[in-house]
Amino acid sequence: MALRIGDTAPDFEAETTEGRIQFHDWVGDSWAVLFSHPKDFTPVCTTELGYMASIKPEFDRRNVKIIGLSVDPVDKHSKWADDIEETQGARPNYPMIGDSDFNVSKLYGMLGADVSGDPADRTAADNQTVRNVFVIGPDKKVKLILVYPMTTGRNFDEVLRVIDSLQLTAKHKVATPAQWQKGGDVIIAGSVSNDDAKEIFGEWKEPKPYIRIVPQPESEPAGVSS
Question: How does DSSP classify residue 121?
Fold first, then answer.
């Protein structure tokens, strides 16, 4: 079955460029971004891995751990990292999973259960569905799934924007409108009655009864509130 938003992110044990990990233990009380790649030494992914390394401090500030995955063994990842640093000016400063047995790709619905064999015998096109971004909360639930084609580089600034929204709305009873950026006005959640909204937010703008606009509440990148 396909993984959906709200599902528990599958736990797994895997080798990475920073040692063996148990995924849920590695995430701990943080948020996490798992982003996957169909094969090492592919051009678009090379740019993505370098860009993620350059903006890792932005994820750190939000209490978000980042981890990459490629359907190749860890020893190839280390050689690829040399090329990434040379061409992109930044070396991956986060772990990269070696998914040469396809286990994680299958758990996360990126490859079919019938896939097997030597990853060296598979091309990037064979693994083209392994181009996903998963944002996972401290509660180990999937908060966001993005799927990209091989020919389109991912927009990780957008991933940061969504994380800002996820962390804000996990703490406060609000939703974020289209094109929202951190610090912009937000919408009172539909589940909040007007009486409760007055107690929580005071007054609001109301172009329609179901659109109640307020300034963004203050929020820190902490865990998921109930």
Answer: G
Active site residue 112: no
- Facing residues of 135 across strands? 33, 144
Quote the DSSP letter at residue 41: S
pTM of the model: 0.93
> Using alpha carbons only, how large is the chain's radius of gyration in Å?
19
Active-site residue, selected from the candidate residues 33, 44, 45, 52: 45
DSSP SS3 for 210: coil
Which tokens go with 182? 């951190």
Pick the CATH number of 172-214 from 3.40.50.620, 3.30.1020.10, 3.30.450.20, 3.60.10.10: 3.30.1020.10
Convert the pLDDT of each residue in 98-125 to its tens digit. Answer: 999 999 999 999 999 999 999 999 999 9
